[in-house]
Amino acid sequence: MASTDVATVQNPPSPEAEPKYGGYTRFEIELEFVQSLANPFYLNHLASQKLLNDPAFVAYLAYLQYWSRPPYIKYLNYPGPTLKNLELLQEERFRQDIISPDLVQALAAEGVKASVEWHKDE
Predict the structure, then answer these.
(1) pTM for this entry
(2) Which CATH number covers residue 37?
(3) Alpha-carbon span 49 to 7, nearest angstrom
(4) Structural domain of residue 114, as residue ranges?
(5) Mean pLDDT of the chain
(6) Is the separation of the CB atoms in 30 and 13 below 8 Å?
(7) DSSP per residue, 84-110
(8) Which is deepest, 27, 36, 45, 92, by most CB within 10 Å?
């Protein structure tokens, strides 16, 4: 994100045709990244790399909140955990606490329980 200009950061990408970076559009790259935030083990990895302490990365997480609105939300495979964790990442306390293996395990267990409950209703 360091080489991205301000206009690019402030305007979400269009799912329509746009320039490619390494063969992928910005839309595809951001979609893959934001969906990875549903994984508490990945959040722990980001914390262990000190990325969640980096003001530029925190600003990027704030920018990614556009995924919670139409038309972008329809592209998320797991909108519940993805958007929940994206929202939690807006809180400094959560960004500090996710380094804890206990919190990671609790979030992972919560995700499994939610999945089992959802399948029971089918």
Answers:
(1) 0.81
(2) 1.10.10.1340
(3) 27
(4) 6-120
(5) 88
(6) yes
(7) HHHHHTTSHHHHHHTT-HHHHHHHHHH
(8) 27
